[in-house]
Amino acid sequence: MFFRDVIGQDTVKQRLIQEVREGRIPHAQLICGPEGIGKLPVAIAYARYINCQNRGETDACGQCPSCTKFNKLVHPDVHFVFPIIKSAKGKKEVCDDYIAEWRPFVINNPYFNLGHWLNEIDAENSQAIIYAKESDEIIRKLNLKSSEGDYKFVIVWLAEKMHPVCANKLLKLLEEPPAKTIFLLIAEAPDMILTTILSRTQRLNMKKIDDESIAQIMQNKYGIDAKESYSIAHLANGNFIKAMETIHLNEEKQLFFDLFVSLMRLSYQRKIREMKLWSEQVAGMGRERQKNLLDYCQRMIRENFIFNLHKPELVYMTTDENNFATRFAPFINERNVMQLMEELSEAEKHIQQNVNAKMVFFDFALKMIVLLKQ
Q1: What structural domains and CATH numbers belong to the chain?
Q2: What does the angle CA 240 – CA 198 – CA 238 come to, to the nearest 5 degrees?
Q3: How does the average pLDDT of the chain come out, rounded?
Q4: 28-32 and 152-157 as β-strands: parallel, antiparallel, unpaired?
Q5: Is-contact 237 342, C-beta < 8 A?
Q6: Secondary structure percentages of the chain, helix, strand, coil, to 5
Q7: What is the DSSP letter of 5?
Q8: What is the per-residue pLDDT for 149?
Q9: What secondary structure letter does DSSP report for 144?
Q10: What CA–CA distance (Å, rounded) separates 132 from 138?
């Protein structure tokens, strides 16, 4: 991953390049922003540029020994930390146990989310975190001598997923970092990170990708005509993952749409038995997938409420979602929208707390009967 491979984000790239060229490299940066905007690609390109032995004005050379190792993400001084699940037999407990899956996964598709990664490692019902043991691994690695005498990097993807013990040990490293060591923490929910860590990092807020950059990629790389490419860019709303899901069949998003439509219809018709079966079907999905479904439902409630304002430029729905909204949107109004969102948020909190999923989803389904009539 080079700076030239990062979609849009010109201001961020220029800032980071300027830091390196002026010798003002912070020892710890927190790269924040929503999903699908290229935070991890930026972090990898930045680390590559810093250690490049023949860097240019705007990018790494791609040919020096350091860049050659970066091409396959096998640079011995670059350590990746990311959410994982522990295997039942205890054979996989730290990130290095998953590094063989991680490297090709990131190289082949640098724009991805937690759900994609969990599917890659067959997470099933487990919720992924960065375990406490990982902090000991980081300390061990940073105590090793740099293999090439350059900077050592710790790139933490989704730092908000760190176990509190891991976060506290990382705090000690940030207070007294080893020489020529750079921490790059990537977060989508920085408010969930310890405030003591936040205060010891230089924050870099990345914005959504501009529509022009996404449209250009759609045209140049995927051969989509100009009009449709801008339509996709608008729908993506700065999230390249959503843009990719729009042009490729996404089974999970289709499943979520079908489940949402099914629940709304069953609730309106008050088909209690079928609603119970619906709850059991959803309960059979993994916890992370259940949370993703609830996120999707919140988005659909929000989009259908906005649909009623008759401002198409503010609506971000696919063709199927839009067609459903023409009939469903009138049922989402100022009398029930806030309570609907609160119930979904409450259900997501219960799923995170490992409450019985059948009870959570059936309870929510029953509440929908009343709320849709308001």
Answers
A1: 3-205 (3.40.50.300), 211-240 (no CATH), 249-371 (1.20.272)
A2: 15
A3: 89
A4: unpaired
A5: no
A6: 60, 10, 35
A7: G
A8: 67
A9: S
A10: 11
Looking at residue 340, its amino acid is: L
Question: Which of 159, 213, 216 shows the shortest CA–CA distance to 40?
Answer: 159
Burial 184-193 (b: 16+ CB within 10 A, else e): bbbbbebeeb
Q: Name which of 20, 44, 12 is nearest 155 in CA terms.
A: 44
Whether 300 and 127 have beta carbons less than 8 Å apart is answered as no
User: What's the token pair of residue 171?
Assistant: 């705090």
- List, for residues 14-61, the tens digit of each pLDDT value: 999 999 999 889 999 999 999 999 999 999 999 999 999 998 999 999
Close Cβ partners of 34 (under 8 Å, ≥ 6 residues apart): 188, 208, 238, 239
Tokens of residue 100, six digits:
């063989």
- Structure-block tokens of residue 263: 């629940």
Q: Which pairs count as long-range contacts for 343-347, CB under 8 Å and 24+ apart, including other chains?
A: 343/367, 343/368, 343/371, 344/294, 344/297, 344/298, 344/301, 345/298, 347/294
Within a 13 Å sphere around the CA of 223, how many CA atoms are in the beta-carbon half? 0
**pLDDT band for position 125 (50/70/90)?**
low
Q: How far apart, in whole angstroms, are the C-alpha atoms of residue 298 and residue 295?
A: 5
The first and second tokens of residue 232, run together, are 């996709």
What's the DSSP call for residue 232?
H
Scan for tokens 């219809």, then name that residue: 265
For 14, the token pair is 């220029």
What pLDDT, on the 0 to 100 scale, is given for residue 230?
87
Q: Which residues contact 2 (CB under 8 A, 6 or more apart)?
A: 45, 48, 59, 60, 62
- Residue 192 is classified by DSSP as G
Q: In the chain, which ranges are E strands?
A: 28-32, 78-81, 152-157, 181-187, 202-205
Which of 17, 106, 111, 107 lies closest to 59 in space, CA to CA?
A: 17
Enter the tokens of residue 180: 């020529």
